[in-house]
């Protein structure tokens, strides 16, 4: 390396102290754990949407964005695929013809019923290297980072 300034800056930089790098690696780890427990025929985001709809039947797209953090355009595409798989129904809101409401279907409920124990097991495994106190702190910190402070 010919640039002494870059060499100095790199000497002061550690990937293991870089939050973005650590979050990416943990994202990959959580994906692998989820796929092993739940399977690869349903995504983490689809499960999140099914959970949100099971908890709030008739939710609007805005409700689902708020509940899941999935951006509106991605959500719209995902819902289209989930409607095609008959996990979700989408209807015009009777109070606002410009808006849609979504409901989980019996097929979506069956899928969620079959997989929720595995989803919970994956969440437990993700946190398993941490002590109970560290788990609470870690989850609190993650909520703070996304703007959902306790």
Automatic annotation (TrEMBL):
<dbReference type="InterPro" id="IPR039422">
    <property type="entry name" value="MarR/SlyA-like"/>
</dbReference>
<dbReference type="InterPro" id="IPR000835">
    <property type="entry name" value="HTH_MarR-typ"/>
</dbReference>
<feature type="domain" description="HTH marR-type">
    <location>
        <begin position="1"/>
        <end position="147"/>
    </location>
</feature>
<dbReference type="Pfam" id="PF12802">
    <property type="entry name" value="MarR_2"/>
</dbReference>
<protein>
    <submittedName>
        <fullName>MarR family winged helix-turn-helix transcriptional regulator</fullName>
    </submittedName>
</protein>
<dbReference type="InterPro" id="IPR036390">
    <property type="entry name" value="WH_DNA-bd_sf"/>
</dbReference>
<dbReference type="InterPro" id="IPR036388">
    <property type="entry name" value="WH-like_DNA-bd_sf"/>
</dbReference>
């Amino acid at each position: 390396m010919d640039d002494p300034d870059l060499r100095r800056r790199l000497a002061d930089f550690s990937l293991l102290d870089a939050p973005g790098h650590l979050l990416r690696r943990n994202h990959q780890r959580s994906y692998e754990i989820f796929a092993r427990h739940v399977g690869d025929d349903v995504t983490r985001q689809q499960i999140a949407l099914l959970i949100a709809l099971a908890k709030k039947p008739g939710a609007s797209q805005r409700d689902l964005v708020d509940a899941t953090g999935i951006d509106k355009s991605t959500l719209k595409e995902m819902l289209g695929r989930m409607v095609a798989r008959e996990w979700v129904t989408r209807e015009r809101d009777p109070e606002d013809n410009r808006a849609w409401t979504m409901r989980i279907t019996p097929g979506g409920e069956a899928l969620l019923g079959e997989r929720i124990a595995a989803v919970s097991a994956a969440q437990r495994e993700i946190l398993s290297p941490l002590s109970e106190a560290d788990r609470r702190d870690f989850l609190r910190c993650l909520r703070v980072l996304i703007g959902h402070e306790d």
